[in-house]
Amino acid sequence: MTVPIPPEVADQVGELYVETASDLLGYARTLPQVDRAHAEDLVHMAFQEAALCWRKLAGRDLEGRRRWLFTVLRNKAIDEWRKNRRQHPSADLAGFGRPAAEPFNQVLSALALQRCWLAIEQMPPMRQKVAFLRWSEEWSTGEIAEWLGIAPASVRGHLKVARDGLVEQVGSDIPFLDDPEDIDDSGDDLGKEAAS
Description:
single chain; mainly alpha; 2 domains; 9 helices; about 65% helix
């Protein structure tokens, strides 16, 4: 059953969408097992929920509404992940026969990854985009350069500066930093070019 949404609520939710959708989409794409299409679906689900719960949100300021949307999106992603796990239990057997990582090591890895993404969020916008596309989306240097309209050397420079910053802030045991494509061995000083 479809619930009609009053026009004034639709207008207010539309304004909220314009102000927050791109940030919400960026957050959705950082969640595990969420590709671009799924991230867009999660954003739309969060705004549908906002329209249905507008009476609850109307009294909040913009920051309160943003926090609510981020929470709803994260919860919907978790719900879908759980539902998919129940529908495809064979995915749980993928690691069968191999020793599981100790819970202590799993927690340390999760904390390191969380600290990495927090550090990446503090980087200049271009470096943040390069790091996200390389380490989250696994794009090649050439793909990133073409998409962002910069030279491949600039991509590698941004990655080097980002990697150095992450190692300094988080430590050297970051699994996604091991890709040899990220390393420029031409001897160029890419850090200066990427510092901007």
